[in-house]
Amino acid sequence: MNPGQHLSAADAPLGSAGLGQPGCPPEAEALRGRVRAFVRERVMPCEPVLDAGGDAARTALRGLQAEAKREGLWALPLPEEYGGQGLGLPLYAHIAEAEGASDHGPAALGSAPLLDVLMLARHADDTVRKSFLRRITGGEVRTCYAMTEPETPGTDPGLTATRAESDAAGGWVLHGRKWFTSGAGEADLITVLARVDDEGPGTDSLSLFLVPASAPGFRVVRELPVLGAGGQWEIAFDGVAVPPEHAVGAPGQALRIAGERLVLGRVLRCLRWLGQAERAFDLMCLRARSRGQSAGPLADRQLVQQMVFDSLLAIRTTRPLVHEAAARLAAGEDARLETGLAKVAAARMLQQVADAAIQVHGAAGLGPDTALPGLFRTGRTARLLDGPDELHITAVARRVLRGYSVTSRTDPPGR
After folding, report:
1. Cα separation of 78 and 269, whole Å?
2. Which pTM value belongs to this model?
3. CA–CA dist 321, 382 (Å, integer)
4. Quick one: pLDDT band at residue 408, thresholds 50, 70, 90?
5. Which of 104, 277, 330, 340 could form an S-S bond across to 392 if both were Cys, CB 3.0 to 4.6 Å?
6. Residue 199: what pLDDT?
7. H or E element, residue 177
8. Distances from the Cα of 27 to the Cαs of 30, 90, 391, 402, in angstroms?
């Protein structure tokens, strides 16, 4: 890969076609600009190294994290009491788009463990909070979340096979296997969903446990490349002893806790997908303007103009859905319907825009000199992450239909 080419394509001026970010509050605008510049000027040039993994990637990431700390951009949305900057979701939602334009942006800027920090702050034992939360926020301890299992539908947690057996000391012993666990190969702590005492199918016996990667019996089975990219792992728990204080939340409350993190996680993913779609859009427009043929530049071709229009329309119509979900969540309101709409729309939008950008690039869009293959891969996997499209479509439709009844009324009820 030619790093210079990778950067020049990714470094098109964001918002040059009027994408911008409508509704961004003035107090967030300057910070968003600083984060955008950091991601585009510091993180994106390092993507080839970061994507490759290994010691060079770890060294590069540590360097970026040190720069983010020096520039006051570290851990923006994490709680202040644990070393973050406490930026609330209403403002952070606008920052997250710029931060997420690169898959490595959240890790480089220290926001990646937000879901784990909030979960542990709310539900973990006081000993765990004191031992780990500041170190997680500071980037010293890396975390991951293990829920999905081989041969078990990820959409049906009631069939979870990993089990936790109680021991005489009041602790637990874990047996089972998880896969497609993001970041497990580098993690120091793993939050594990398990069934207590091997009870039958159902959700009442599910609990969460915090497992150190150094614990005897924990092992990394293999890395699971996703459409050729690394970062997902299969892991196993072969009689891993867990002390009682490492249970997260009350027994049987795992799905309630998981639901809290899932709805916020989905909104954060959607915001980051918007940032990646804008990046693909910029690449497409830059290519259309700069690529000439005997009959003139690509930008003069109506079919190219159609792809530009459709992509801009997809981005502009998706953004309000995502920010509505974020606003309802920040206000403590039920955001399940809005999150379902936003998740499906954002995943489709990213795949559509990345695909159009590849089409405008031609063969160059398939190769290693732009970020487009990675953006397209993210768009395709987005339709399965945090629940497949079909799950969200069904859940939203059922929720809407419950508001209607067969009566003599001719006007539909309000939602």
Report:
1. 16
2. 0.90
3. 16
4. low
5. 340
6. 59
7. strand 172-182
8. 7, 11, 37, 40
